[in-house]
Design goal:
Elements lengths: L23 E2 L6 H8 L2 H6 L5 H14 L4 H25 L3 H8 L2 H34 L3 H8 L2 H11 L1 H26 L3 H7 L5 H4 L1 H14 L2 H10 L3 E2 L4 H36 L11 H12 L4 H32 L5 H23 L4 H15 L1 H11 L2 H4 L6 H31 L1
């Protein structure tokens, strides 16, 4: 057993994001909808990670090259995400710890250190995708150089500091507005592209070709990494504790129920938006003979001419900017939670967030300088593969903790949920191992 000590013997951890911990009151009423409104919010912060620029890169490449086939991967990934995020709610509410704190408290120092390093790499890869996505949007909409766009997007950390000083509800409200913007933009693009509904529905059915085609599998793993985000597991288990429920069994059970509903509804919206990106790419590019479109910039330039709608490209750019900005906010929060949870470093809020952002900004600037502006989509897809390879190292601890009765007490995963959770973990490890084998075989051939 990897757990180092029994849960009962561990001291209570100082909460991450202490400035907003238990800051949102829960009304003591019977009304379902009033309570649902009070608990609603964390799920939408988590959902932006499922529609960030990394998703755009993998979805555009997958849709333009393989049509609707990879929609089944998006659906599977989203179902796994709903299950895993529900475990995060369960862990945060039942223990009062986020995933990073639990790893530090219950694993050995060496295991905890390795997990922290891997998590920082994942956050850097995630933030790389989001910074590049925002920079690309600024370039497409306003003609700014990509390097300048990367630098400008770092300033959103100041906005996050301002919002959290006003209260966590303001951060949630901003993210919800940005998510709604993305949704409206892609609903419009779907109307313009007029996809074949029957073919779209068929795309959600599993296809064995995905496993046997190395190129398709690479994109499928990228979609998986872009959809189920490792940093979201740390983020969600912490921000669910911004709600000030009473520490009784019934109130904790209620918090788990409403928190799970919140994340499930939010991730269902994310599924629709994520699917819409691939559907638009397939309907516009794949079936018009433009299967080679993989760069976000190329998709932007071709949308209006191919659809015959002058504003289609601009709508695409606005949605990309909203996607990048919303996801950078949540990635910065996740970085703060990981730093505090694993290292117990308490720094001023502005310094913590600045350090988190620099971890991603520096690699982004180096990548653009070394590989040029025309390789950004390849970098975005590669960043999502890195996320997918790191994912088991976040998922397996989450399943271990929520399945351990000593830690969770009466809120431990029931048997059916344990089976499903471990099945997801095994599937992720298996897919990632298959990807490594395929990449290794390609290197040998070279």
């Amino acid at each position: 057993m990897l757990l180092q000590r029994k849960a009962e013997s561990m001291p209570h951890s100082v909460p991450s994001l202490s400035e907003v911990h238990r800051s949102i009151s829960i009304p003591n009423v019977q009304s379902f909808w009033r309570k649902m409104f009070a608990f609603a919010g964390p799920g939408y912060l988590v959902s932006v990670g499922y529609m960030d620029p990394g998703n755009w890169a993998t979805d555009i490449a997958g849709g333009s090259k393989f049509g609707y086939t990879l929609l089944s991967v998006i659906l599977l990934s989203n179902l796994m995400a709903i299950l895993l995020q529900s475990l995060c709610v369960r862990l945060g509410v039942a223990t009062g710890k986020d995933l990073a704190q639990a790893c530090r408290d219950y694993f050995s120092p060496s295991v905890s250190f390795i997990l922290w390093i891997l998590c920082e790499i994942a956050i850097a890869a995630c933030d790389l995708a989001e910074l590049l996505g925002s920079a690309i949007a600024l370039q497409l909409l306003f003609g700014l150089p990509l390097m300048a766009g990367v630098c400008i997007t770092t300033l959103d950390v100041l906005g996050l500091i301002f919002l959290q000083s006003k209260g966590f509800r303001y951060t949630e409200a901003l993210v919800i507005v940005l998510v709604a913007t993305i949704g409206v933009c892609f609903a419009t693009e779907l109307l313009f592209s007029r996809p074949a509904i029957g073919s779209v529905l068929q795309g959600y059915l599993p296809n064995s070709e995905i496993v046997h085609n190395p190129e398709m599998l690479y994109l499928a793993i990228g979609i998986l990494g872009a959809t189920v985000m490792p940093h979201n597991l740390y983020l969600h288990s912490s921000i669910v504790q911004t709600r000030n429920w009473q520490p009784t069994t019934n109130k904790r059970r209620e918090a788990i129920k409403f928190g799970t509903i919140d994340s499930t509804v939010a991730l269902s919206f994310a599924l629709l938006i994520n699917s819409a990106i691939l559907i638009v790419a397939a309907a516009t590019f794949h079936f018009s003979g433009n299967q080679g479109v993989a760069e976000i910039q190329d998709a932007y330039q071709l949308l209006s001419p191919l659809l015959g709608v002058s504003g289609a490209s601009a709508i695409f750019g606005i949605a990309l900017l909203a996607s990048g900005q919303s996801s950078t906010l949540t990635a910065t929060l996740a970085g703060q939670i990981v730093m505090e949870g694993f290292l117990r470093i308490k720094l001023p809020a502005w310094l913590r967030r600045l350090a988190t952002r620099l971890i991603a900004v520096i690699p982004a600037l180096i990548a653009v300088a070394m590989f040029g502006e025309h390789s950004t989509s390849n970098l975005l897809v590669f960043s999502q593969v890195i996320l997918s390879l790191q994912l088991p190292f976040a998922v397996i601890p989450l399943v271990i903790f929520t399945s351990d009765r000593r830690l969770m007490g009466e809120f431990v995963n029931p048997r059916w949920l344990k089976i499903m959770a471990w099945a997801v973990a095994v599937l992720l490890v298996g897919l990632n191992s298959w990807l490594l084998i395929q990449v290794g075989m390609d290197w040998i051939r070279l």
